[in-house]
Amino acid sequence: MGLFSGFVTYLIIWWLVLFTVLPVGVRQQEVVEKGHDSGAPQKAHMWKKVLATSLISAILWGVAYFVITSGLIDIRPAADAFK
Questions:
Q1: Exposure winner among 1, 19, 35, 56, fewest CB in 10 A?
Q2: Is position 65 within any domain?
Q3: CA–CA separation, 21 vs 30, rounded Å?
Q4: For residue 39, what is the DSSP state?
Q5: pTM here?
Q6: Using one digit for the tens of pLDDT, what is the confidence trace for 22-57?
Q7: In a domain, 78, yes or no
């Protein structure tokens, strides 16, 4: 896995994990102010979620890197089918 493909793989994993982590711990506002969405969270805790996303993504990327570089899964035959 090259530098660019490793970075792209990490970005894809990061976004997938972010969308998975976003709804965790969300509480709706008790009293909705005029002009605010009733489904908006009270406190989003985005920095905590970004940190958790980055840590989880790093672990998952490490697993993906190991699987790809160890040869457990070989994607070359599938790529050759499209030639």
A1: 35
A2: yes
A3: 22
A4: T
A5: 0.76
A6: 988 888 777 777 877 777 777 888 899 999 999 999
A7: yes
- Domain span including residue 51: 11-20+45-83
Six-digit token pair at 66? 């190991």
How many domains are contained in the chain? 1
**Which residues contact residue 66 at a Cβ distance below 8 angstroms, ignoring those fewer than 6 apart?**
72
For residues 9 and 65, what is the distance between their CA atoms, to the nearest angstrom? 9
Our measurement of the distance from residue 9's CA atom to the centroid of its chain's CA atoms, rounded to an integer in Å, reads: 10
The beta-carbon contacts of 73-78 under 8 Å, at least 24 apart in sequence, are none
81 pLDDT above the threshold of 80: no
Per the domain annotation, does 5 fall within a domain? no
In this prediction, residues 61-71 reach a mean pLDDT of: 90
Question: Is residue 81 in a domain?
Answer: yes
Sole residue written with tokens 């709706």: 28
